[in-house]
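Ops channel
N.P.: pipeline sanity check, posting one input/output pair.
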Protein backbone atom coordinates (compact mmCIF):
# COMPACT_ATOMS: atom_id res chain seq x y z
CA UNK A 1 0.00 0.00 0.00
CA UNK A 2 1.26 3.47 -0.87
CA UNK A 3 1.53 6.23 1.68
CA UNK A 4 -0.61 9.12 0.42
CA UNK A 5 0.10 11.34 3.39
CA UNK A 6 1.91 14.52 2.40
CA UNK A 7 3.99 16.09 5.17
CA UNK A 8 4.00 19.88 5.52
CA UNK A 9 6.30 21.46 2.99
CA UNK A 10 6.71 24.56 0.91
CA UNK A 11 7.18 24.61 -2.85
CA UNK A 12 9.53 27.17 -4.38
CA UNK A 13 8.14 27.20 -7.93
CA UNK A 14 11.18 29.18 -9.14
CA UNK A 15 13.24 26.01 -8.57
CA UNK A 16 10.88 23.61 -10.37
CA UNK A 17 12.08 23.00 -13.96
CA UNK A 18 9.79 23.79 -16.88
CA UNK A 19 8.88 21.23 -19.51
CA UNK A 20 7.56 22.24 -22.93
CA UNK A 21 4.38 20.83 -24.48
CA UNK A 22 3.32 21.90 -27.95
CA UNK A 23 -0.33 22.66 -28.62
CA UNK A 24 -2.21 22.60 -31.91
CA UNK A 25 -0.96 26.19 -31.94
CA UNK A 26 1.37 27.78 -29.40
CA UNK A 27 3.19 26.10 -26.56
CA UNK A 28 2.62 25.26 -22.90
CA UNK A 29 5.27 25.25 -20.18
CA UNK A 30 4.59 23.04 -17.17
CA UNK A 31 6.20 23.06 -13.74
CA UNK A 32 5.12 19.84 -12.05
CA UNK A 33 5.27 18.54 -8.50
CA UNK A 34 4.10 14.92 -8.25
CA UNK A 35 2.92 13.15 -5.11
CA UNK A 36 1.37 9.70 -4.85
CA UNK A 37 -2.06 10.17 -6.45
CA UNK A 38 -1.76 13.98 -6.68
CA UNK A 39 -0.20 16.27 -9.29
CA UNK A 40 0.30 20.02 -8.83
CA UNK A 41 1.26 22.17 -11.81
CA UNK A 42 1.88 25.76 -12.74
CA UNK A 43 1.07 25.88 -16.45
CA UNK A 44 1.74 28.83 -18.74
CA UNK A 45 0.16 28.89 -22.19
CA UNK A 46 1.69 31.17 -24.81
CA UNK A 47 -0.24 33.67 -26.89
CA UNK A 48 -2.46 31.97 -29.48
CA UNK A 49 -2.36 28.62 -27.66
CA UNK A 50 -4.91 25.92 -28.51
CA UNK A 51 -4.65 22.47 -26.93
CA UNK A 52 -3.96 19.67 -29.39
CA UNK A 53 -6.54 17.29 -27.87
CA UNK A 54 -9.85 17.08 -26.01
CA UNK A 55 -9.15 16.21 -22.37
CA UNK A 56 -11.45 14.04 -20.27
CA UNK A 57 -9.34 14.11 -17.10
CA UNK A 58 -10.59 15.82 -13.98
CA UNK A 59 -8.89 19.00 -12.80
CA UNK A 60 -9.11 21.89 -10.42
CA UNK A 61 -7.90 24.88 -12.45
CA UNK A 62 -7.25 28.32 -10.98
CA UNK A 63 -6.33 31.30 -13.16
CA UNK A 64 -3.37 33.28 -11.82
CA UNK A 65 -2.72 35.66 -14.75
CA UNK A 66 -4.25 36.30 -18.18
CA UNK A 67 -7.39 34.77 -19.66
CA UNK A 68 -8.28 31.30 -20.93
CA UNK A 69 -11.32 29.97 -22.77
CA UNK A 70 -12.37 26.47 -21.71
CA UNK A 71 -14.01 24.96 -24.79
CA UNK A 72 -16.23 21.92 -24.37
CA UNK A 73 -16.70 19.41 -27.15
CA UNK A 74 -20.48 20.04 -27.00
CA UNK A 75 -19.87 23.66 -28.10
CA UNK A 76 -20.28 25.35 -24.73
CA UNK A 77 -17.45 27.35 -23.22
CA UNK A 78 -16.44 29.34 -20.17
CA UNK A 79 -13.80 32.00 -19.61
CA UNK A 80 -11.43 32.16 -16.64
CA UNK A 81 -9.77 35.40 -15.61
CA UNK A 82 -7.49 35.97 -12.60
CA UNK A 83 -9.08 34.76 -9.37
CA UNK A 84 -11.53 32.38 -11.11
CA UNK A 85 -11.45 28.57 -11.03
CA UNK A 86 -13.18 25.55 -12.49
CA UNK A 87 -13.45 21.99 -11.23
CA UNK A 88 -14.53 18.77 -12.97
CA UNK A 89 -14.17 15.05 -12.24
CA UNK A 90 -12.70 12.54 -14.70
CA UNK A 91 -14.86 11.64 -17.70
CA UNK A 92 -17.56 14.28 -17.03
CA UNK A 93 -16.54 16.58 -19.89
CA UNK A 94 -14.38 16.78 -22.99
CA UNK A 95 -12.61 20.10 -22.72
CA UNK A 96 -9.61 21.99 -24.07
CA UNK A 97 -7.89 25.28 -23.34
CA UNK A 98 -7.54 28.18 -25.78
CA UNK A 99 -5.97 31.58 -25.16
CA UNK A 100 -5.25 34.53 -27.43
CA UNK A 101 -3.21 36.54 -24.94
CA UNK A 102 -1.50 33.84 -22.85
CA UNK A 103 -2.38 32.63 -19.37
CA UNK A 104 -0.82 31.27 -16.18
CA UNK A 105 -2.79 28.60 -14.30
CA UNK A 106 -2.46 26.45 -11.18
CA UNK A 107 -3.77 22.99 -12.07
CA UNK A 108 -4.41 20.26 -9.50
CA UNK A 109 -5.44 16.75 -10.47
CA UNK A 110 -5.22 13.23 -9.20
CA UNK A 111 -6.98 10.13 -8.01
CA UNK A 112 -9.48 12.07 -5.87
CA UNK A 113 -11.17 13.28 -9.09
CA UNK A 114 -11.90 9.78 -10.42
CA UNK A 115 -15.55 8.87 -10.83
CA UNK A 116 -16.81 6.68 -8.04
Amino acid sequence: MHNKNIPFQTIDWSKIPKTEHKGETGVAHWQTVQFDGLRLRIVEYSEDYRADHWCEKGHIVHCLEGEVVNEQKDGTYSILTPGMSYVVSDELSSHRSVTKTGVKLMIIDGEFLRLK
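N.P.: looks fine end to end. The CA atoms of residues 13 and 34 lie 13 Å apart.
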